Amino acid sequence: MVSYALKQAPEIILEVPGRDSRKQRQQALDQLVDRANEDEALRAKLADGAGHDDLIVVTEQVPAVTKEPDPDDTTVEDVKTLVQAIVSYGFMRVKLEQDRQEAQAVLKELEAIFDPKLELTEEMVAELKKRSKLLISYAENKAAFGDVRANAEQSQTKLEKILELERSAMR
Q: What pTM, to 2 d.p., does this model score?
């Protein structure tokens, strides 16, 4: 099962069987069309349309363990959850850096609009408008990054406590 969020409406999650592929993305877009037919607010968000590139693969959100570690009560699942939170942060960091580089390229293209020597066409502006969605996506991901980082840092602290408690118990 693969889950997709939509750049224009990240609260919308579309799930299709299988792994991320062009076929699964098309199935997700078909689901989106069905939802948009029923939801006027969603149709408004999708006024410029949506395509395969507007779908973001959603990785499972890993909550941090909220209880304080107790060496007698710590489970393997607690440790797995903490490790997953830290690894998810790592993947998000890499993705954010890639998105930042793409966003910088789009920003330079948008700056060209202000160049009086450049003869703009409607097609050029329409293409820039499409590509500018990358900037919006980057800004949204960057805003979420702080929470993911805080979760990862808390997870690391808790994991260190668990490991220290285990070391103490072994002595």
A: 0.51
